[in-house]
Design a protein that fits this description.
Layout: H1 7-10, E1 16-21, H2 23-26, H3 31-40, E2 43-46, H4 52-55, H5 65-76, E3 80-87, H6 94-97, H7 102-120, E4 126-131, H8 144-149, H9 153-164, E5 169-174, H10 180-195, E6 202-205, E7 208-210, H11 216-227, E8 232-241, E9 252-253, H12 258-264, H13 273-292, E10 297-302, E11 317-318, H14 335-343
Parallel strand pairs: 1-2, 1-10, 2-3, 3-4, 4-5, 5-6, 6-8, 7-8, 8-10, 9-11
Helix pairs in contact: 7-9, 13-14
Bound molecules: (3S,4R)-3-hydroxy-2-oxopiperidin-4-yl beta-D-xylopyranoside.
Amino acid sequence: TDPTPSLKEVFKKDFAIGTALNTQQIEEKDPGAGLLIPAQFEAVTPENIMKAALLQPEWNRYNFELADKLVAYAERHHLKVNAHTLIWHSQLPRYMYRMSSTDSVRQFLHDHITTVAGRYDGKVYSWDVVNEALNEDGTMRKSVFQQKLGDDFVVEAFRIAQQAAPHTKLYYNDYNIEQPAKRAGAIALIKKIQAAGVRIDGVGIQGHWSVDHIPFEQIEKSIQEFSSLGIEVMFTELDISVLPAPKNVVGADISQNAAYNEKINPYAGGLPDSMQNKLASGYEALFRLFLKYDKQISRITFWGVDDGQSWLNDWPVRGRTNYPLLFDRQFKPKPAFYKVIEAG
Ligand code: XIL
């Protein structure tokens, strides 16, 4: 009986609206988010459970239990799955960090992609084949894959994925690739894949931004430049932090002293109206920009359903109170939600 239209309805003609799903949500142990997911979204990305550490915890021993549950959940609720992610330097199984032989790394690249992407071909809509292969200056990140196999591991990963998953869309995904130097690196990488005659269907700009500087101008240029490569453009992990982004504190805990906490975690007691409205305006402007390019953009995915479960409460500092999404800790739509709906 709620007369407010849903995100997925409002943007149906423009692009798919998605959300990340955590384990609780996949196992339907989160009734609050459980109502919102099928009502508001038409696409889902597993936040963690399809990462290599979880799917292949020991070499050649796979655990598909949760990934299969996700696929079943998505089927029940008519949601498209963007699977995330095959090849990434982070959340790798422990043995990968100790792997010293080139042949073994090559074997892992081949077997992991073939087994996992093969199993879910026809069951998931798309894969983030390679995640975060670039440095901020556009050069290749020194991951275990890059170190052992060279820069071409990205082309190889897509080649193997194309073989294993002919019915699945294949994407490159990264953060800050809207920024000029990193964007140039991403464009070069995509062109290299295309020049090798290997299929790449789209690029995902993660979209972890901060309310004080949403890079509108670079976002617009990125949509234009990436889409001119003939591929889909997506925003795949959208959230807008309202907290300070301190440097060199990854993994730090807030409970050091009161003055530090106050500075680093200013909204523990609630979000002031001024900030609530600033977030809403930021989201509104962003969606107005996205709509200008609705032919180029195929999907916008939020990195979580509600503020209470956002990873930004624990990153880069643990234990903060952040408010980056459209639904609050009681699963109620925030002013930002209504602004986004209005824009649509
Ligand atoms: C994050 C998850 O949200 C966290 O739960 C996990 O602890 C770490 O990873 N870029 C990505 C995502 O591509 O996979 C990351 O997800 C966030 C940054």
